[in-house]
Amino acid sequence: MPLFLQEPQIHESAQGPRVTPAAGRTAPTPRPVPGPRSAATPRPGRPVPGPARPTPPAQRADPAPTPAPAPAPAPVAPTSAPSRPENRSAPRLQLIPAPAGGALDAAEEAVDLLLESGRAPGDILVLTTGEQHPWAAHELSFGDVAYWAQQDAGDDVFFADASAVDRAKPRPVVVVAVNGDAGDTVARALPVARDRAAALLIVCGDPQTINSALGAAV
C-alpha cells in the first residue's frame, strides 16, 4: 500500500508572540510622543512648583498697625505767682578813647569793623553829640519825614544827632561819637543810648567826659 505524506503542521509557537496578553496582565499603554513643555511643566529633577509665596508684610495691601498714641502730658497746675517780664540784660559797653575832633572818625572805624565781623547794617545806630554826620546832614536836606523813614526801614546804618536820641529806635548796636558839646547833651544822650542798645554800646570820645556822664555804670 502506498504511503501518503502528511502536510507539516504549523504549531502556534512558531507564529511569533501572542498578541493576547497572558491571564492576569494588562496590556502596556503606548507612550505618548513627547511634545513641547509648557511653562508650568518643570524640568526633570526640578521640584514641582507649589502655591505662590505670600506677599511680604511691607507689600501687603493691609495697612501696618497704628502704634498706640503716646499718653498726653499731665497738665501743669497754675501757680499764683504773676508772670515776670523778660529779663533783658544790660548791653556790653566798649569805650574807645579819642579826642573830640577824632571821635567821629573812631566811630566810623568801629562801624566798619562791625560790618566786617558780620553785623548787618540795619543793626547799627550811630549818634553824634556835636557836628552831625555828613550822611545825616545830606538826608535831612530832603525833609524830616523822608529822613526818619529810613530809620523805620531798618535796612542800613542810621546816623542821628544825639539831641534827637528820644526818636531813635532800639537796635542791637549803638555807637556814640562824643565829638562835641560835652555838657548837658552828652549827660542826657549816653544813658538813653545805653537803653537803646540791645547788645553792645560803643562810646568814642574822652574817657573822663564819658565816665562823668555814665557815672558808676561805666
Secondary-structure topology with pairs:
Blueprint: E1 92-97, H1 103-116, E2 124-128, H2 134-140, H3 144-153, E3 158-161, E4 171-177, H4 184-196, E5 197-205, H5 207-214
Parallel strand pairs: 1-5, 2-3, 2-4, 4-5
Helix pairs in contact: 4-5
Could you characterize the architecture of this molecule?
The chain has 218 residues and is α/β, with parallel strands linked by helices. The chain is built from five helices and five strands. The protein has helices at residues 103-116, 134-140, 144-153, 184-196, 207-214, and strands spanning 92-97, 124-128, 158-161, 171-177, 197-205. A five-stranded parallel beta sheet has the order 1-5-4-2-3. The longest helix has 14 residues, at 103-116. Mean pLDDT is 74; it is low at 10-17, 29-61 and 73-87.
- Name the average pLDDT: 74
Helix/strand-derived category reads: alpha/beta
* SSE ordering: EHEHHEEHEH
Intertermini distance: 176 Å
Helix segment tally: 5
- The low-pLDDT segments are 10-17, 29-61, 73-87
Spatial sequence of strands, sheet with the most strands: 1-5-4-2-3
Main beta-sheet annotation:
5 strands, parallel
Q: How much beta, percentage-wise?
A: 5-15%
> How many strand units?
5
Q: What is the general shape?
A: globular
Helix content: 10-25%
Please tag this protein with its features.
alpha/beta, five-stranded parallel beta sheet, 24% helix, 14% strand, globular
Task: Write a short abstract of this structure.
The protein is an alpha/beta fold and about 220 residues long. The chain has five helices and five strands.
